[in-house]
Design a protein that fits this description.
The chain is α+β, with helices and mostly antiparallel strands. The chain is 27% helix and 40% strand. The protein is built from 2 helices and 5 strands; from the N terminus they run βαββαββ. A 5-stranded mixed beta sheet has the order 4-1-3-2-5, covered by helices on one side. β2 and β3 form a beta hairpin. The longest helix has 13 residues.
Length: 93
């Protein structure tokens, strides 16, 4: 079995109101990633992503671009924690 990696991402820039969360949910589904994504009150988007090292690296690369309308300034990545069985959009925190 492949080792699972968990990473917390905070995406900064023009990332709310541009279909970022739904696009990330679709990409996570395609890559077999579990975890969650939500908007934050400060205007950023936060995600917890879990999967194979290769899949987590792929979704991290995807987050640096985001969907077509997004303007990503930077992505802060740090080790994450938790155990997830699906990928979900969560309420704003």
């Amino acid at each position: 079995m492949t080792e699972r990696v968990t990473r917390r991402l905070v995406i900064h820039g023009r990332v709310q109101g541009v279909w970022f969360r739904e696009s990330m949910r679709q990409e996570a589904s395609r890559l077999g990633i579990t975890g969650w994504v939500r908007n934050r009150a400060d205007g950023s988007v936060e995600a917890m992503v879990q999967g194979s090292a290769q899949a987590v690296e792929a979704i991290t690369r995807w987050a640096r671009q985001g969907p077509e309308q997004a303007e990503v300034e930077r992505v802060d990545a740090a080790p994450g924690e938790g155990d997830y069985v699906a990928f979900e959009k969560r309420p704003t925190a």
